[in-house]
Design goal:
The protein has ten helices and seven strands. The protein is an alpha/beta fold. It has one domain: Rossmann fold (3-Layer(aba) Sandwich). The radius of gyration is 19 Å and the shape is globular.
Length: about 280
Amino acid sequence: MSFTRPTALVTGASSGFGLLTSIALAQKGYQVIASMRDLSKSERLLKQAEQAGVITAIETMALDVTIQESIEQAVSDIMNMYGRIDVLINNAGFAVGGYVEDVPMEAWRSQLETNVFGVIATTRAVLPHMRARKSGCIINVSSVSGLSAFPGYAPYSTSKFAIEGFSESLRLEMMPFGVRIVLVEPGAYQTEIWRKGFEAIHTTESSPYWSGLSKMLDYSKRASATAPDPQEVAHKIAQIVDSPRPKLRYPLGRGVKMGLRARSLLPWKWYEGLLNRLLK
């Protein structure tokens, strides 16, 4: 089927960056397939799309990035309906918190299954179609936690560090085929991911790490309470997808670039000391 409008697939579109990015792309003229694991959670997206006047440019679709058959079915349906996938926004993910010893292995596996293998599987399903057209843009929503790790977030940082390396390799592989690979690395923003993470933290008051984790959580809650509007990230993604030569990395958020610069310039011992003082 021939479809003239560019088409974008967004994963994890029921809330946060995924929801806002779906609307931002629709406003730019994209036909957006806003996917999520549970379609019963699409009400907020559709309501905001209607308010923005782009409801006809957004189609919701069930897609669970941890199930290969779900990914293949979604990509097949999109190709049958629209004949093309111009943009893939790998946004689906969640945060597991807790000190390494306190986090059970099933939680580690669940974290990597969604945040890493889900991204890889969805990307692999889309790549043949972009490669055949010799065009396309894949944006992997990483995190500043994929560049600089904090105590208490090892599972989440592990998953995002993995996506950083995956994206670097993929970008080099796809350059000859005209497919652009980009990392967007937000710091703290006012999204649901941190609230959900705080509610599901792995610890108990009897843990030897209780005091350290409590300080880390206090710091995180203060940062999230005063964090900027996530619409900033959605707007940036909407700009990037149309750039013919985008950068590999786009770190976003209050103080993020300064923090990363300090990490790259200071000896590790000094940087480590700064973090320890900050958390105290």
